[in-house]
Design a protein that fits this description.
Elements: E1 3-7, E2 12-16, E3 20-26, E4 32-39, H1 43-50, E5 82-85, E6 95-103, E7 106-113, E8 118-127, E9 130-141, E10 148-153, E11 156-159, E12 167-172, E13 180-185, E14 190-195, E15 207-211, E16 222-227, E17 233-239, E18 245-251, E19 258-260, E20 265-267, E21 271-276, H2 279-294, E22 306-308, H3 310-313, H4 319-332, E23 336-339, H5 369-377, E24 381-386, E25 390-391, H6 396-400, E26 420-421, H7 427-443, E27 448-451, H8 471-489, E28 494-497, E29 515-517, H9 524-534, E30 543-547, H10 561-568, E31 572-575, H11 584-606, E32 608-613, E33 619-625, E34 628-635, E35 657-660, E36 666-668, H12 669-674, E37 687-697
Parallel strand pairs: 22-23, 22-31, 23-24, 24-27, 27-28, 28-29, 29-30, 30-31
Antiparallel strand pairs: 1-2, 2-3, 3-4, 5-10, 6-7, 7-8, 8-9, 9-20, 9-21, 10-19, 11-18, 12-13, 12-15, 14-17, 15-16, 16-21, 17-18, 25-26, 32-33, 33-34, 34-37, 35-36, 35-37
Length: 698
């Protein structure tokens, strides 16, 4: 069972995961203070640490040690994770402990304001099969008549041990270049990571990794956190002049204010964290395992090989064309056929039709059922692209309900991609969205939805509503509720999360979807870096990765079909090229590579991932699964006359031997780990290789 211990004398709590400990205490003023997050401690050791007092500073310094949820009030000058204002204008809080509860690994510490009817509960949850600690906060207005104004309500704050030259790793990007890993020394200052877009965003991700300044892929102390929220968010990292590093994070961005009604309780999303001594690779593997055990809806399933018609047809979608593509896809061994944008309403471009979710009668005279039936007859599942949160002004829906979009009085309605955002926080709009989705899935035998969202929020208001800023929060909650309700009504339905590519990828969205469309950029060279960043938090099982045409539509780069396949095989494999233009040789090669992927799929999607680095531009990922170890290695470029050396592997049994399933060669596990695996890379740039090793004995 998960372990939560309490010492009443020091008012100290100790939470233990399989490999780590986390300790928190109350000081004399009932302020919750951080004690320890790191290697395993006994309760006696935690008490010894808790007994140490923070050194006194000057009259210009913050008093006391780091808080579990920094607030306003008193001698506090750092970032406040909780900001409230009471009806009489008073700001800040003064705590009085109201007890705690601990059951099945869930610790709740209740704190009341000493004068006002405010209760805040700090939640901690540990599992017996993971080193991830889940934290969140509830804020309750216990007044019977007056609201409380909330200006900030973070989920949690985290603290590193004092000293050391800490570094921060984070993800940056933009559309078509998401999940680019950056690593830098933490400055003595406040550093803000945020999205003000109403979505997770392409530009930043609510995941961080802090290390002791010396960590590598397989060694060193790493502390990592991730916020389970798909709307706007903010994480503020602070290093003070004394060398203490803390960060606080939660939903929303600066400037938002909402009311907590009398009797209302507000619950923040989970802000989860982990500690490891095994470097960045070990941190990622803990995240992957946690996602499979506690987040992803169907972790035991293998994601099917899909075909998506977008790059083949664009908006020129009709039944004969899709039927012909489906026949070719089935020949390759595809298991899921997905019709992308353009099947509905007057959708001949991105200027019109969004919101009118009925099949275009000219393109699909009998609706979608004949196509769905043919796809099923061919032995594939049937999927469809939708964008439920958006509407074109040139649509029947908008003409009937212009009030249904996010907007503000006396302000222009900003169009991006010729569309506006529906206000799903409105009960009538949300009910409409669920109703057409439910009807569409039921009437057309749909197995899979590619759920897209192609623009951020602007003019996020709700004229006439008494608490308009709340829409920033309720919009995301409404998306969650519609997805949850739809899946509950259709247990066999599977969903891919998409937001113009990787604009909405976080622990919140993957709790209710089955995979994420990683990026609209399918260039294999660019994808190596994108997928490397994505893998810091997410397992390969949820990483949608396509093979598309050469030259690539985004970059015009030409790459071999084998190289494109080997890069995409590192995740949930998809095909997105125009199969009508593929030669018979290409179709034959693709058929063989898809068959190979199905052979290694259990290892890729359910195995333990290890990021590997070779000479020069050579990188690879290895997947350990049962008695198998699968290597996908890529070398985008190399100087003339340079051939990368052998690739050193990890996670093998040094006393065992391993047979290459394709060549029959037998290798010693010890040799593979010490001296590396020789790679039969083709000559030239854009070279790649797949090696499938199986243990044959010790």
């Amino acid at each position: 069972m998960p372990d939560v211990q309490y010492d009443p004398d020091q008012r100290l709590w100790l939470l233990n995961t399989p490999s780590t400990s986390y300790a928190v205490r109350l000081d004399d003023n009932d302020d919750p203070r951080h004690v320890h997050w790191g290697t395993t401690l006994t309760l006696a050791q935690a008490k010894e640490l808790a007994a140490r007092t923070s050194p006194d500073g000057s009259s210009f310094d913050t008093a006391g040690g780091p808080e579990e949820l920094p607030v306003e009030g008193g001698a506090r000058f750092g970032v406040a994770g909780l900001q409230v204002r009471f009806i009489d204008g008073t700001r800040g809080v003064e705590w009085r402990c109201a007890g705690h509860d601990a059951e099945d690994g869930h610790l709740s510490i209740h704190l009341d304001d000493r004068h006002y009817p405010l209760r805040v509960t700090l939640h901690y949850r540990v599992h017996d099969d993971s080193d991830v600690i889940e934290r969140w906060t509830t804020v309750e207005n216990r007044n019977l008549s007056d609201p409380i104004t909330v200006q900030r309500a973070d989920s949690a704050a985290w603290t590193l041990p004092s000293g050391g030259e800490h570094r921060v790793s984070h993800l940056v990007g933009a559309w078509n270049s998401e999940f680019r890993l950056r690593r830098a020394q933490v400055p003595t200052a406040e550093t803000v990571f945020t999205s003000r877009r109403g979505m997770t965003s392409h530009h930043a991700n609510p995941w961080l990794a802090l290390d002791d300044g010396t960590a590598g892929e397989e060694h060193g102390e790493v502390w990592s956190t991730a916020l389970a929220w798909s709307g706007s968010w903010r994480i503020t990292l602070q290093r003070d002049p004394a060398g203490r590093t803390t960060w606080t994070g939660g939903l929303g961005h600066e400037g938002l204010t909402w009311s907590l009604a009398p009797g209302e309780t507000f619950e923040t999303p989970v802000f989860a964290g982990l500690f490891t001594t095994g470097g960045f690779g070990a941190a990622s593997r803990v995240w992957h395992d946690y996602a499979r055990r506690h987040v992803i809806p169907h972790p035991g399933e293998s994601r099917p090989v899909l075909y998506n018609s977008w790059e083949a047809t664009g908006f020129d979608v009709d039944e004969p064309g899709q039927t012909a593509l489906a026949a070719r896809a089935a020949r390759l061994g595809v298991e899921l056929f997905v019709v992308d944008d353009g099947w509905f309403g007057e959708r001949v471009s991105d200027h019109a039709g969004l919101g009118d979710w009925t099949p275009n009668p000219d393109r699909f005279p009998g609706g979608l059922r004949p196509l769905a039936a043919e796809v099923h007859r061919l032995g594939m599942r049937f999927g469809l692209w939708v964008e439920p949160e958006m509407v074109n002004p040139d649509s029947d829906l908008y003409r009937a309900h212009p009030e249904w979009v996010l907007h503000m009085a006396h302000r222009d309605r900003t169009q991006m991609r010729n569309q506006l955002v529906l206000n799903l926080a409105r009960p009538d709009t949300a009910a409409w969205a669920h109703a057409w989705l439910d009807r569409l899935v039921t009437e057309h035998d749909i197995d899979f939805l590619k759920w897209d969202a192609n623009r951020p929020l602007t003019e996020a208001g709700w004229p006439g509503h008494g608490d308009p800023d709340r829409v920033w929060i309720e919009q995301t909650r409404a998306v969650y509720q519609i997805m949850d309700r739809l899946r509950a009504g259709h247990p066999d339905l599977r969903i891919e999360a998409c937001s113009g590519g990787g604009g909405r990828a976080d622990l919140g969205i993957i709790a209710r979807t089955d995979q994420v469309w990683t990026s609209d950029n399918t260039d294999a060279v660019d994808r190596i870096g994108i997928q490397h960043g994505f893998s810091q938090l997410f397992p390969a099982q949820v990483m949608g990765a396509w093979v598309t045409d050469s030259p690539n539509v985004a970059t015009a780069r030409r790459t071999p079909l084998r190289f494109r396949f080997h890069v995409a095989m590192a995740g949930a494999l998809g095909i997105g090229g125009d199969l009508a233009r593929w030669s018979e040789d290409e179709l034959k090669e693709a058929t063989g590579l898809i068959a190979t992927y199905k052979r290694i799929r259990p290892a890729v999607q359910h195995g333990t991932a290890y990021r590997l680095k070779g000479d020069g531009a050579l990188t690879a990922v290895g997947y350990a699964y049962e008695d198998q170890f699968v290597v996908l290695a890529w070398c985008p470029t190399r100087p003339f006359g340079h051939s990368p050396g052998a690739l050193r592997l990890t996670a093998l049994d040094p006393g065992a031997s391993y047979r290459d399933q394709d060549t029959g060669a037998v290798h010693s596990g010890a040799v593979l780990m010490r001296s590396g695996l020789p790679l039969a890379l083709p000559d030239g740039d854009h070279a790649s290789v797949l090696v499938h090793l199986v243990r044959i004995g010790s």
